[in-house]
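Reviewer 2 asked us to include a model.

Predict the structure of this chain.
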Amino acid sequence: MDALRQVDGWPCRGAAVAVVYPDGRRITHGNAEHPFDWASVTKLATAVTALVAVEEGSVGLDDPAGPPGATVRHLLAHASGLGFDSHSPIVKPGALRIYSNTGFELLAAHVEERTGMPFAAYFEAVWGFALEGSPARGVTAPLTSLVELAVELQSPTRISRETLELARTVQFPGLDGVLPGFGRQKPNDWGLGLELRDAKRPH
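Predicted model (C-alpha cells):
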C-alpha cells in the first residue's frame, strides 16, 4: 500500500504502474490512459514489428541492411557498427556492441522497403497504436499499450514462441560494448532487439 500511495502522491503530471504476470494477468494503478513518452522502450515494439515481418517472409534476419557488411540481425542486436545517432560506422559490423538509434531507423526503412508498406502503418497494424516519430524512440502511448508489449514479451501472440526465444538468445556472443547510463560492459549481451540482463555488471 505504501508503494501505491507513492504513485498517487508523485509530483508529476501523471503516474501509473502495472504488474504483468507470466500468464497474462495484469494489474494497473493510477491513470493508465495518460499518454507517456516511451523514449527507447519504443525499440522493443519496433523489434517485435520487424520480427513479424520476418515470420511473414518479407524480411530475413540475414538480409543485408544498414552499413556495408551489416544485416537485419546486426541492426536488431546493436552490432552494425553504427554510432548512437550517426549514419557513419564507427567499427566494422560484428566488432563491437554500440547502442544505436540510427540502426533501428535503418531497420525500419528496410522493413518498409521489403513489405511495400510505410513502417508506421505496418507498426500500427501489428500493435494497434501509433508510431508518431522515430522507430527508435517515437511512441507516445498510455500504460495500457505498454502492458500489451509486456504481455507479448512473456506470452507472444504476434510472433511465435520460437521467434521470441530466438530474440531472447544472445546474438554475436562475446561482444563488448557500452550500455548508456551504465558504461562499458564486457560482454554486452543483446538478443534480437532485446537487451539481456544475464551476468552484466553493473546493470
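The CA atoms of residues 39 and 137 lie 4 Å apart. The longest helix spans residues 42-56. We have added this to the supplementary material.
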